[in-house]
Write a structure and sequence with these properties.
Length: about 230
Amino acid sequence: MTAPIRVGLVHTVPALAARFDADIAADRPDWQLLHIVDAPLLATAIAEGVTSDVSARTKAHIEHLAEQGAAAILVTCSSIGEAVDAAALAVEVPVVRVDVAMAAEAVALATRAGAATEGAGTIVVLATLEATLGPTGRLLERFASESEQRPTVRSHVVRGAVEARTAGDTATHDALIASAISRAAAEGADVIVLAQASMATAAETAGADVPVLSSPRSAQRALIDAAEGAAS
């Protein structure tokens, strides 16, 4: 009998462990999931940026999961994305950065939208944390630079949302994000990117008439593809 595939996930937002656990179990119920939750890692990244300490701790988590037999590893925090890129070089299993698939899709959609109007297309990135805008924005710019019609990338912080979430007021958190989504769509965005996985539920109530992308589903698909490819 073939042993079940084992995958690893690193989270800095504790609630995401349960979300990804349930979502992956719905697609691959026989898989074994190994979770590491390190909320202080995000706190350090917010306060100080992606320091050498953040990079070292990210690398240690990824190496530990690889040593535990993970066929592939997903890091669900966008704010430490560039530390993930560096840490991935230290292991022989695939490491998935949560926002990569989303960024590639955003650029493709914006490029098509721009071509239809003989323009460049516009991507608006929304985040609740300033710390996330840099890594996600640079990732989008990297993909955009490879496009013939380079889309414009604009970024905004949704003020007050992180405070509401910290206070346990998810309704206000989601309402503020939904309002920002509606405003970005009205101001001409061709694609809206939600930079943090924790923002995903807000998209469901926004009702925007342009694509609104969040990372959990695309990152999950990338993790499944990577793990199955590594196990085959």
